[in-house]
Amino acid sequence: MSQRKSPRNDAIFHISTGRDKAGLDVKYIDSLKGRGVFTMMHFTKGEFVLEYRGELINFLESNRRHRIYHNNMKGFIFSFIWHGKLWTIDAERDDGTLGRLVNDEHINPNCKMKRIIVEGKPHLCLFALRDITPGEEVTYHYGYADCPWRSKVRMLLLVAILDK
């Protein structure tokens, strides 16, 4: 009988192989959200779900790219502090992995982003905040309040209420 990997070791394994975990699928949601990642199997609280992969770049390069990217591409940039400096994972280039497609949910996310260091390099990984059932969309809180799609959702809800 094989021993089950710890969530951290599971993350390190998937980081090392460069592959997403089985049991995840991409589906189109709507024109506001676009695509999202959905579970096809049960994930338990604390379990590694997937890695947000992309190119690790420094603050200056991140600013340069932020100025030249079309607004749609700016959603694939994830910045974080590491060793007292601002770093960015740029996932603009679609490499076929799913982390870049996980959507924001600021009220009730089912995952949390954590930094894992492998061979001296930071990797951003999502871990389940609670049990996630098959068919659920994988979500996490992006960490900032001024997401443009939240304003659009509020506006659409307001229009729907006023139309009644």
Task: Write a brief caption for the model.
With 164 residues, this protein is of the alpha+beta class.
CATH topology: Beta-clip-like
The CATH superfamily turns out to be SET domain
Work out the helix count. 3
What is the end-to-end distance?
Answer: 60 Å
| Overall pLDDT confidence | 85
Shape label:
globular
Total domains? 1
Instruction: Report the CATH C-level class.
Output: Mainly Beta
Side-by-side strand order of the widest sheet: 3-9-8
- Structure class: alpha+beta
Could you tell me the radius of gyration in angstroms?
Answer: 17 Å
Please report the total strand number as a whole number.
10
List its salient traits.
single chain; 164 residues; alpha+beta; Beta-clip-like; 3-stranded antiparallel beta sheet; 10 strands; 23% helix; globular; disordered C terminus; SET_dom; SET domain-containing protein; KMT5A; histone H4K20 methyltransferase activity; SET_dom_sf
Task: Characterise this structure.
This protein is globular. The chain has a single domain, classed as Beta-clip-like. The chain starts with 6 loop residues before the first helix and ends with a helix. 23% of the residues lie in helices and 33% in strands. Strand 8 and strand 9 form a beta hairpin. A 3-stranded antiparallel beta sheet has the order 3-9-8, covered by helices on one side. A 3-stranded antiparallel beta sheet has the order 4-6-5, covered by helices on one side. The chain has 164 residues and is an alpha+beta fold. Mean pLDDT is 85; it is low at 149-164.
